[in-house]
Amino acid sequence: MARIGEDPEAFEAFYREHVQAVLRYATRRSRDPHAAADLVAEVFLAAITAAAVYREELGSPIAWLHGIARNTAAAEDRRAARAWSAEGRIAGRRLLDSDDIARLEERIDAER
């Protein structure tokens, strides 16, 4: 397993062996094919990064990948919830336009 983080051929073999299982997980989690593809990519990128610390006694490679997928999906859910919350807080409020930005730049320059 540690080799997948260092050896492109080892990673390719690992990817080919497990991509369908990760893709099935991603498509169950998402209604958007682009989001599912992003999740698969993020899972395998995380696997490359974490390959050196993989511990076989804690589970099979596919179980490990499912754990990474679950954590990655949960992180995305948290990010989306924060974005949704932020959008809710600014809904109905006037945002800065280009004239506002120009006035701010003038004030900053004047302060200097």
Short description:
It contains 4 helices and no strands.
Molecular structure report:
By secondary structure, the chain is mainly α. It is built from four helices and no strands. Helix 1 (8-29) crosses helix 2 (33-50), helix 1 (8-29) packs across helix 3 (61-90) and helix 2 (33-50) packs across helix 3 (61-90). The longest helix is centred in the last third of the chain and has 30 residues, at 61-90. The model has no long low-confidence stretch (mean pLDDT 92).
Query: Given the C-alpha coordinates, what overall shape results?
Result: elongated
Helix content: over 70%
SSE topology string: HHHH
Low-confidence stretches: none
Strand percentage lies at: under 5%
The total beta strand count reads 0
- By secondary-structure content and strand pairing, the structural class works out as mainly alpha
Work out the helix count: 4
Give the biggest sheet. none
Mean pLDDT: 92
The multimeric state of the shown protein is: single chain
Radius of gyration: 21 Å
Amino- and carboxy-terminal Cα gap: 56 Å
